[in-house]
Design brief:
Radius of gyration: 21 Å
Pfam family, one: Glyco_transf_4
CATH architecture of the largest domain: 3-Layer(aba) Sandwich
Number of helices: 14
CATH topology of the largest domain: Rossmann fold
Protein name: Glycosyltransferase involved in cell wall bisynthesis
CATH superfamily of the largest domain: Glycogen Phosphorylase B
Keywords: Transferase
Strand content: 5-15%
Number of strands: 12
Largest sheet: 6 strands, parallel
Helix content: 40-55%
Order of helices and strands: EHEHEEHHEHEHEHHEEHEHEHEHHH
Shape: globular
Distance between the termini: 16 Å
CATH class of the largest domain: Alpha Beta
Structural class: alpha/beta
GO molecular function, one term: glycosyltransferase activity
């Protein structure tokens, strides 16, 4: 491939790893493996405040990029005044559901997104659903949005041996079989609905099985869990990438009835680990998981509870979904996403 001066907006490298940060890290890993030319530009390590890093991005970053270089901003935001830029916009949940976010954050995003999306040379998103919602919300983006699916690291997310899962159970003091949900504790992840569903389940399930919720909080969201929390519910807090495959593998079932996803990476990770999945029949999750998971209306706790009950009671269904889901997940590879992303960046650089 002809050398192309690609500069990567490295703002994400100082953030905790959640979905969009994992996306950026994995795609850049693919760039390195193929020796695709690139370099980073990022705020100095001395700038600890997120607000100050955002200010640095908007004011100083454009000065660090030569006129013959293309900037790629992989995590939903980039400098408005850099037109020679491609941005990855994973979703626009803050525009569609501002009530889930802090008011200051949504006001800032509403101010910055329209001019940013108008000026950039191209927009990458991660599902057809996200492309449709971006085009509908921002008509000026029609013809500028390219869909490139995420991947899953099947060399990392794969079924782990019992020795490893036993050690993990001991480390987290998980003595009973458990059902897992993963995601930052924010309103999109529907923890409220999961807890209501859990409280609807028969006592013979909640006495024998635990609900394990893994994920930290995200400061941009305005949300508090307000459902009764049963004694069989465990909050693990933030869990590192090193631990996640073992946690998926140890779970009887992965439940992810998110209200809104631009893609839904945890669903693929769980499938790759051989864990059967219950997820939503809405947003990009329908596009991603239909036919390979048991899907429910995420706004109906009774459906979530019914799906959990059905799965626990059907070993045959769990084994079928686990087998087919694991095979399906193999089709989503980060190296392929990296190749397609770099090809798109080259295309936009040459335009």
């Amino acid at each position: 491939m002809t050398e192309t001066p690609v500069v990567i907006n490295g703002h994400f490298r100082k953030q905790d790893v959640t979905g969009v940060q994992r996306y950026a890290r994995e795609v850049v890993r693919g760039f390195r493996q193929k020796a695709y030319p690139h370099r980073y530009v990022e705020p100095p390590a001395s700038i600890a405040s997120n607000t100050l890093r955002q200010l640095w991005m908007q004011t100083v970053m454009p000065l660090k990029i030569r006129g013959d270089e293309l900037l790629w901003s992989p995590t939903n935001i980039g400098p408005v005044f850099n037109e020679n830029q491609v941005i990855t916009l994973h979703d626009i949940s803050d525009q569609l559901y501002p009530q889930w976010f802090e008011d200051r954050y949504t006001r800032w995003r509403s101010l910055i997104l329209p001019p940013l999306l108008k000026r950039v040379k191209g927009i990458i998103t991660v599902s057809e659903y996200s492309k449709r919602t971006i085009n509908e919300q921002f008509p000026q983006t029609k013809g500028k949005v390219q869909v490139i699916y995420n991947g899953v690291r099947t060399d990392h997310f794969y079924p782990r041996e019992q020795e490893e899962t036993d050690a993990l159970r001991k480390g987290f003091n998980l003595q009973k079989p458990f059902i897992l949900t993963v995601g930052s504790i924010d309103p999109r992840k529907n923890i409220d609905g999961i807890l209501e569903a859990w409280n609807r389940l028969p006592a013979d399930i909640t006495e024998e099985v635990e609900l394990v919720i893994a994920g930290g909080s995200i400061h941009t969201f305005s949300f508090e869990v307000d459902r009764d929390i049963a004694e069989s519910v465990r909050f693990l807090g933030y869990v590192s990438d090193d631990v996640l495959p073992g946690l998926y593998s140890a779970a009887e079932l992965f439940v992810y009835p998110s209200l809104f996803e631009g893609f839904g990476l945890p669903v693929l990770e769980a499938m790759a680990c051989g864990t059967p999945v219950v997820t939503s029949n809405t947003s990009a999750l329908k596009e991603l998981a239909q036919g390979y998971a048991l899907t429910v209306n995420p706004r109906k706790p009774e459906e979530i509870a019914g799906a959990i009950d059905h799965m626990i009671g059907s070993e045959e269904l769990c084994e079928d979904l686990a087998h087919r889901g694991q095979q399906y997940a193999q089709g989503f590879q980060w190296n392929a996403a990296a190749d397609k992303t770099y090809e798109y960046l080259v295309q936009k650089y040459r335009e």
